[in-house]
Write a structure and sequence with these properties.
- There is one protein chain.
- This protein is mostly beta strands and about 190 residues long.
- The strands form 3 sheets. Strands 3, 4, 5, 8, 9, 10, 11 and 12 form an 8-stranded antiparallel beta sheet that branches.
- The longest helix is centred in the first third of the chain and has 11 residues.
- The protein is flat and about 95 Å long.
- The termini are far apart.
């Protein structure tokens, strides 16, 4: 005991041990799952990488798109017939009777695309009323989007309006009147966005 100024002083030492930090048990991290190997019949594993990459991409919805005709935006609710086709002819070669031979021939028919929309009384409805059968349209662009971001562009250089149709009028129904535009075109080109 130390004596200070003739008095005994007790020195109290800190006997408490510092708190020990308890470590929580964390299980070891699970290894990442191995990619699913899918093989295309008749092709080797080199295709596997492509298929796995395709499986991880997000899909693009078919519900978000804009249409511009000569840079004027026209609203449509549905587009059908976005396709390119070729015409073929088949013939049988002498001495080879097991199967016919298929060859591409010159095109005789145009591709058809159909634009549909609900009838409105806005400016878009006015633009649609100007379009009539027999009218030639150029520079038709279809912009496909995902969450507002442009993903793909379909471009039709030239087309001819074949018909303009209106849905049925029915006083017993509450359905929206549908307008549709059938267009014969020379084919479309697909412009991917990087």
């Amino acid at each position: 005991m130390p004596i200070i100024n003739g008095k005994k002083r007790y020195i109290v030492e800190n006997t408490e041990k510092p708190p020990v930090e308890k470590k929580r048990y964390e299980p070891p991290a699970a290894p990442a799952p191995a990619p699913v190997k899918r093989y295309v019949r008749g092709q080797g594993p080199s295709v596997t990488k492509v298929l796995n990459r395709e499986a991880t991409r997000e899909f693009i919805g078919s519900f978000e798109f804009d249409v511009r005709i000569n840079l004027i935006q026209v609203n449509f609710s549905k587009i059908t017939g976005i396709e390119n086709k070729i015409e073929t002819e088949t013939f049988v070669e002498g001495g080879n009777n097991d199967f016919p031979i298929v060859r591409q021939k010159a095109r005789q028919k145009p591709d058809i695309i159909i634009f549909e929309k609900g009838m409105t009384s806005t400016m878009g409805g006015t633009i649609f009323s100007i379009l009539r059968q027999g009218m030639k349209l150029t520079n038709i662009l279809i912009f496909v989007k995902r969450n507002g971001k442009l993903m793909k562009i379909f471009s039709i250089d030239e087309g001819l309006i074949l018909s303009k149709k209106f849905g049925d009028l029915d006083s017993n129904s509450s359905a929206i009147l549908i307008e549709s535009l059938e267009l014969a075109h020379t084919g479309f080109s697909e412009i991917p966005i990087p």
